[in-house]
Amino acid sequence: MAKTASDCTTMAEIRENIDRVDEALAALFAERWSFIRRAAEIKADLGIPADVPERVRQVCDNARRNAETRGLDGAFYENIWAELIRHAIAYEKAKLGEE
Questions:
Q1: CATH of the domain at 79
Q2: What tens digit of pLDDT does each residue of 16-56 get?
Q3: CA-based angle 81:82:85, to the nearest 5?
Q4: What's the structural domain count of the chain?
Q5: pTM
Q6: Rounded CA separation 70/76 (Å)
Q7: What secondary structure does DSSP assign to 23-89, as a single string?
Q8: The domain containing residue 39 runs over which residues?
């Protein structure tokens, strides 16, 4: 059963809810990846390269700001997003024949 952290009184409840949140994160990452796949298709049609540095910076800045707004370590989450972006760019480069 979904609970907030403050509602949990046992480690079992904490673990159950962390697992629930992790599953939701995986679903969101899958949704995000569907947009990466589609971006590669659109980029191929428009002749846009996989790596667009201005957009990379914008996404990293958004990740930092979104984390900090929620009281999280902005640099940590910016680094996670940078890794997501590196993976997406590698995928797009392979799809676009840029390797």
A1: 1.20.59.10
A2: 999 999 999 999 999 999 999 999 999 999 999 999 999 99
A3: 85
A4: 1
A5: 0.90
A6: 13
A7: HHHHHHHHHHHHHHHHHHHHHHHHT--S--HHHHHHHHHHHHHHHHHTTS-HHHHHHHHHHHHHHHH
A8: 10-96
